[in-house]
């Protein structure tokens, strides 16, 4: 049995956090969930996700904002989690172009609340969400954790890179094992309404055009939610240590010689064109999309691709669900949840 039995999951009413919390509960663990129920998107969807957790006797729910430092500290003191899976954040690359301050508040100040809680309450492992967006201007493919990732293109990506660096400093100073996870374009049931697949499905069903950026010349490492959750929960048990082969003269960006700290990619590792992604949705719906081809959006990148060899070496797991299968599963949920019909 794992020594990590009480897990604090932040963002428990969010897309990824909800799936992770349910997985941990299915493993017989006690889960303490924290979410501020932000109105960034439809709160009724968040409430529906939270209701899935409240059915479990081993789940305890808190509606707290991470910037309420005293409330977060009190939660740590009361429940003393063995580990933390930190998934709460202000999400959305495009939203950050118009609302940058919310990212500093939620993603930097809020993250400080979490690592301070870990520091003062004996947490054995912090696993926290980062993003493939930290690779920014990098063009060497596939993206590797051992590549330097210091040229982010949006404030969202910059705050996530800041989280990785803040975690390294606390891991070094206080010897708290910390692992950052770089997620690659996650999709699936119970997703966020601001995500592409959600928007595409809604528009096609309403016989409205979808916006296709960079005139469709885009490629993404689309990662299905179940694969992501499997990677997260397996890595929760992989407690990082200092890398004895690390050199300060030639520092490895993915590990550390002075802190129990790691970063890992979690992606499908089989990049797919945006047009194929859309075709998978059209096939499942039995409808063709009306396409509004547009230039590249500011802060976006044309391609992403994950090197997941470290994930596989550490856990024995490699994501494998295809976009055709993943899109079909998403659509089954979407049609049922919103009481709609395909063709």
SSE diagram, text form:
Elements: E1 6-10, H1 15-26, E2 30-35, H2 43-54, E3 59-63, H3 69-79, E4 83-86, H4 100-120, E5 125-131, H5 155-174, E6 178-183, E7 186-187, H6 196-205, E8 210-212, E9 219-220, E10 223-224, H7 225-236, E11 261-266, E12 272-273, H8 274-285, E13 291-293, H9 309-315, H10 323-337
Parallel strand pairs: 1-2, 1-4, 2-3, 4-5, 5-6, 6-11, 7-10, 8-13
Antiparallel strand pairs: 9-12
Helix pairs in contact: 1-2, 1-7, 3-4, 4-5, 6-8, 8-10
Biggest sheet, in brief?
7 strands, parallel
The count of β-strands is 13
What's the oligomerization state? single chain
Question: What class do helices, strands and sheet pairing give?
Answer: alpha/beta
* Low-confidence segments: none
Which percent band covers the strand fraction? 15-25%
Strand order of the largest sheet: 3-2-1-4-5-6-11
Short description:
This protein has helices spanning about 15-25, 45-55, 70-80, 100-120, 155-175, 195-205, 225-235, 275-285, 310-315, 325-335; strands spanning about 5-10, 30-35, 60-65, 85, 125-130, 180-185, 185, 210, 220, 225, 260-265, 270-275, 290-295.
């Amino acid at each position: 049995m794992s020594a990590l039995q009480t897990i604090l999951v932040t963002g428990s009413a969010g897309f990824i956090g909800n799936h992770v919390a349910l997985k941990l509960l299915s493993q017989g663990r006690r889960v303490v969930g924290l979410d501020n129920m932000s109105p960034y998107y439809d709160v009724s969807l968040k409430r529906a996700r939270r209701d899935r957790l409240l059915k479990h006797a081993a789940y305890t729910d808190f509606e707290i904002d991470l910037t309420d430092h005293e409330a977060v500290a009190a939660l740590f003191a009361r429940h003393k989690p063995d580990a933390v899976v930190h998934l709460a954040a202000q999400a959305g690359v495009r939203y950050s172009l118009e609302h940058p301050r919310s990212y500093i508040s939620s993603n930097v100040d809020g993250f400080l609340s979490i690592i301070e809680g870990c520091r003062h309450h004996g947490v054995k492992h912090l696993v926290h969400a980062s993003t493939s967006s930290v690779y920014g201007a990098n063009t060497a493919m596939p993206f590797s954790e051992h590549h330097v990732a210091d040229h982010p293109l949006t404030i969202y990506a910059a705050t996530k890179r800041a989280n990785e660096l803040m975690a390294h400093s606390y891991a070094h100073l206080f010897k708290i094992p910390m692992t950052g996870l770089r997620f690659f374009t996650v999709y699936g049931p119970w997703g966020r309404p601001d995500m592409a697949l959600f928007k595409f499905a809604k528009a096609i069903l309403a016989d409205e055009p979808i916006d296709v950026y960079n005139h469709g010349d885009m490629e993404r490492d689309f990662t299905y939610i179940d694969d992501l959750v499997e990677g997260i929960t397996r890595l929760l048990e992989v407690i990082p240590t200092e890398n004895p082969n690390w050199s300060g003269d030639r520092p490895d960006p993915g590990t550390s010689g002075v802190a129990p700290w790691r970063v890992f990619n979690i992606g499908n590792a089989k990049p797919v064109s945006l047009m194929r992604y859309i075709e998978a949705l059209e096939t499942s719906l039995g409808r063709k999309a009306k396409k509004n081809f547009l230039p590249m959006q500011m802060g976006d990148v044309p391609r992403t691709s994950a090197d997941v060899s470290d994930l596989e070496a550490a856990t024995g797991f490699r994501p494998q669900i295809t976009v055709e299968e993943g899109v079909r599963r998403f659509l089954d949920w979407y049609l049922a949840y919103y009481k709609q019909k395909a063709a």
